[in-house]
Amino acid sequence: MELFEYNIGNGARAFSTKRGEGSGNYGGFNITHYCGDTAEHVTECREILCNELGVNDSRLILPRQTHSCKTIVIDKNFLALTTEEQKEKLEGIDAIVTDIPQTCIGVSTADCIPLLLYDTGKRAVAAIHAGWRGTVARIAEKCIEVMIKHYDSDPADIKAIIAPGISMDAFEIGDEVYERFAECGFPMEKIAARYPTATGGTKWHIDLWEANRLQLLGKGMRQENIHIAGICTYSRYSEFFSARRLGIESGRIFNGIMVL
């Protein structure tokens, strides 16, 4: 197992997993349980990651994402639930927050944009899954609002990593997706451009990294506290999973963060 780690500040650990050595679409490392991988491989990989992080399996928390805008707060009440009750609560969740130490939360991605947030003042963390649907629905903004509500977070104290995801160069979209972003008030001149196609025409491309960065800035985060990893999963699919390259039946990157 190899982790791509980020310097997000003292008191927290943030990382993205890499594919690892292994044949097939699930590579050597995958902990996402709903992408078609075997239960045995997922369990084995979870154990390896928990040992690396020094946490119990019950403190490695990954929701089942559905491109929603729902955020869940992991608190003592959640941790007191049974495994089945927790599983039910995590269904249809695309952002997750906690302030409980030694509890690793995360989201799985394979081209969608992961965001990892750390409130250095209140020592709270968040993991956000932002595909184009989540981005256009402003899931990053909504997650920060949850942090403000539950932890009294000051956005100026929050640091963010925009982790590996598909780049603007690789993210070709249809006109209907462009229109959705435009209708929702995004500054299209900053996040979209037409690229030439192999057939001689042009197609729209969207910069999801920038679209999410602008949301963070809009909620009061400081520009210097937002770091874009700049890693395109589509072009670097040998290192990081890419659904556009490998298909839906493939492994996922786990983008995790925890308060130490």
Overview of the structural elements:
The chain is an alpha+beta fold. Helices cover 28% and strands 26% of the residues. The strands form three sheets. The chain has a six-stranded mixed β-sheet with strand order 4-5-8-7-9-13. Strands 1-2-14-6-3 form a five-stranded mixed β-sheet. Strand 1 and strand 2 form a beta hairpin. The longest helix is centred in the N-terminal third of the chain and has 15 residues, at 39-53. The mean pLDDT is 97.
Task: Give the key terms.
about 260 residues, alpha+beta, six-stranded mixed sheet, five-stranded mixed sheet, 9 helices, 14 strands
In short:
With 260 residues, the chain is of the alpha+beta class.
